[in-house]
């Protein structure tokens, strides 16, 4: 993401952290006037600049602007209505700080609050990328499960928390919620595949590691079964679902409001990865009751997160549509 410092005709002004995005449009020359009309007509857009003939591939003009987060969805819809996403390209970058009266006016003129605005294209792009089954996702999930297994064996809640933070599973879970709400079943399938392949593979590797550890004398049944500080990992109860629901809601609010720091709190509040790691350890020891409860804990948390995230996103989507009802897009 890009950090921009914008100065507009004043000295000694105090910087404001604003909810603005930098927009860059590559468009055919014959569409430039329409693009400029869209941008200049919206009160939430400012700092509009034109670079004639600057684009090489695809050839055309480059138009840049800064826009309030609340205005982003309308502007993107209007630009896509012109077909710019097919004939050229549209990119967005985050601006952390702006020193500009014009930026202040644009943010004030845009309807709603920046923290409440959902940029749907940004959300689709982000969740789509994080839901892919790839080597990096599998590596992080496997490492997280192995850390969880170490935490179980050593009776270390701190190591369990470390495994929660490393685990990458919230990305696909959020993607499933987004896909359900927006009826993007391709996204649901892709994220579901990542989870369906990732967790069994990570648990299998952890099982293998646990077998080696058991045979080499690193731990035994008594050592694991006496580790009562980490019993919460497999103990399924009403609070398991409650925590999963709250975590899913907080995670989706964080993703849709660009407050990504809150995602860390989500990661360390749910026992998805730790449950998978405990299941592998329990299977090695032949403790099938604990293994079954760990798997149930995993399923409860995964389902709870998706349900809560989907509900939050559906409510935000409904509110956005209600707010925009009857207001035409600024399409020049």
Automatic annotation (TrEMBL):
The keyword rRNA-binding does not apply. The chain crosses the membrane at residues 133-154, 160-181, 193-212, 232-253, 260-283, 295-315. It comes from the Bacteria. Keywords: Membrane, Transmembrane, Transmembrane helix. The keyword Membrane applies. InterPro entries: DUF389. This is Hydrophobic protein (TIGR00271 family). It comes from Saccharothrix espanaensis (strain ATCC 51144 / DSM 44229 / JCM 9112 / NBRC 15066 / NRRL 15764).
């Amino acid at each position: 993401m890009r950090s921009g410092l914008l100065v507009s005709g004043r000295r000694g002004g105090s910087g404001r952290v604003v909810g603005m995005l930098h927009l860059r449009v590559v468009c055919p020359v014959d569409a430039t006037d329409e693009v400029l009309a869209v941008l200049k007509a919206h009160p939430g857009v400012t700092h509009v600049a034109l670079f004639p003939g600057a684009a090489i591939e695809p050839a055309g003009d480059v138009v840049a602007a800064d826009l309030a987060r609340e205005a982003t969805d309308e502007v993107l819809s209007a630009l896509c209505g012109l077909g710019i996403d097919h004939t050229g390209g549209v990119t967005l970058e985050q601006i952390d700080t702006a020193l500009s009266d014009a930026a202040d006016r644009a943010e004030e003129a845009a309807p709603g609050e920046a923290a409440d605005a959902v940029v749907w294209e940004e959300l689709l792009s982000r969740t789509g990328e994080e839901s892919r089954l790839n080597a990096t996702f599998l590596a992080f999930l496997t490492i997280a499960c192995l850390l969880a297994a170490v935490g179980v064996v050593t009776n270390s809640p701190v190591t369990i928390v470390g495994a929660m933070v490393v685990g990458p599973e919230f990305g696909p879970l959020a993607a499933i919620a987004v896909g359900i709400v927006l009826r993007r079943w391709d996204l649901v399938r892709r994220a579901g595949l990542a989870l369906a392949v990732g967790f069994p593979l990570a648990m299998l590797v952890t099982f293998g590691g646990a077998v080696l550890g058991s045979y080499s004398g690193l731990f035994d049944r008594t050592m694991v079964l006496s580790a009562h500080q980490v019993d919460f990992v497999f103990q399924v109860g009403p609070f398991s679902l409650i925590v999963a629901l709250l975590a899913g809601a907080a995670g989706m609010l964080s993703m849709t409001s660009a407050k990504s720091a809150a995602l860390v709190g989500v990661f360390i509040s749910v026992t998805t990865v730790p449950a998978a790691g405990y299941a592998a350890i329990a299977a090695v020891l032949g403790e099938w009751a604990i293994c079954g409860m760990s798997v149930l804990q995993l399923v409860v948390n995964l389902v709870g997160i998706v349900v809560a995230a989907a509900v939050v996103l559906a409510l935000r989507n409904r509110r956005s549509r209600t707010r925009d009802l009857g207001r035409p897009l600024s399409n020049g």
